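Continuing the batch. This is chain 6 of the set; chains 1 through 5 are on the previous pages. Same settings as before, nothing changed between runs. Recording input and output for traceability.
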Amino acid sequence: ASGREWLTHCYGTVGVARDIAPDSGNGSSLYVVIGQSPRRLDRNLAIAGRVLEGMPLLSALPRGTGPMGFYDQPAQRTPITSVRLASELPPAQRPAVQVLRTDSATFAALLDAQRHRHDAFYKVSSGKVGLCSVDIPVREAKTAQ
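Output for chain 6:
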């Protein structure tokens, strides 16, 4: 309604950590949403991207005992020894993925199917779907042979 748009903190989102000052995030510390969507962070922290592969590995990491799952003790930390950004790989090594366009008729049909479930379990359609409940389909692109 306002004509403004922003990226949201849904499962698999990569964000830029910062201190109290809004301009203190320099990209040296990143986080990934591995649990329930912390939507209160929307428009308060910058989103840098989305994990396309490896989410089962990230979400299986043990949580710390501090607030929001932070590690209170250095011994609790599980180091992530490597991260690959597709943009940093040589073109021939980049994963070939296709992401469904959200302006397509196929996506509109997917959204309608989620809003108005048509299977035997759902007797009443809610007509709504949560923003973070809509998984944008990603698949491996078929390469020309």
